[in-house]
Amino acid sequence: MSKLAEKVQQELIKAIDNDDLVLPTLPEVALKVREAAENPDIGIPQICKVIGNDAALTARIIKVVNSPLLRTNKEITDLQMAVSRLGINYTCNLATGLAMEQMFQATSDVVDRKMREVWNKSTEIAGICHVLCKHYTRLMPDQATLAGLVHQIGVLPILTYAEDHNELLSDSISLNHVIEQIHPMIGDKILRTWDFPELIAMVPSQHLDFTRDSAKVDYVDIVQVAILQSYLGSQHPYTQLDWSQIPAFHKLGLNPNQNLNDDEDLSAAMEAAMGMLQ
User: Fold this and answer.
1) pLDDT tens digits for range 116-175
2) Are the beta carbons of 200 and 92 closer than 8 angstroms?
3) Can you tell me the distance from the alpha carbon of 141 to that of 126, in angstroms, rounded to the nearest whole number?
4) Is the pTM for the entire model greater than 0.85?
5) Which of 20, 67, 134, 198 might form a disulfide with 276, Cβ 3.0–4.6 angstroms?
6) Angle CA(173)–CA(8)–CA(174) in degrees, nearest 5?
7) Is residue 76 domain-resident?
8) Phi and psi (nearest 5°) for 122?
9) Are 270 and 260 a contacting pair, CB within 8 Å?
10) Dist CA 275 CA 123 (whole Å)
């Protein structure tokens, strides 16, 4: 590890420990949606009122519900119909995830490019998570999608820090090293600050522990398999791991040697799921 990477890492860990690190805040519409969803008596009209204040988000949700993955014979043209079709919980998780995209933007070109890269990878993983969850578990596909979208959320404060420190910004090797080492820890802290449910909040810090073996299948397992599948056919170090030793595959009932893209239906579903998030 370079001296710069070591110095930055120590600074950031100290800032985390002292609660001095400026964590990103959820976009206002996502905060309002999550707040509304906590009300057990909330109805579709009230949720529509909250989401309807954001025209871009409204359009995205209608696009999602008409996507090949979710559409029915009847085209859905307004938000109320979309929420009725998806259900309140699904809509709220989807709205939270989609609203987060606006956080992945920066003022400098280098950081902005890196943020887009992180967001694009997160939507790819989220799409695969949705399909894995639906086909191989009894967990909630909307939660799995959200888990995929937030698994790298800890990268944000590191890139924000880099924007103010040119020496780190101009040393991509050190920057990538710092990201790899501490984004999982920061991610957990962000999601707990946002009051995300524990099953999602633990995803950032645990998704890279491929020896992890929980009592039953959970969203970390889904994210792990999605990440590994996303690198099939590449030279990424994850493809060199012995996947037969990774418990997540067994918990999902998946053959570690299976390429999901070889199954036409699954491949089409994954493509549709990724497309609905972009």
Assistant:
1) 999 999 999 999 999 999 999 999 999 999 999 999 999 999 999 998 888 888 888 999
2) no
3) 10
4) yes
5) 67
6) 5
7) no
8) -65, -40
9) yes
10) 9
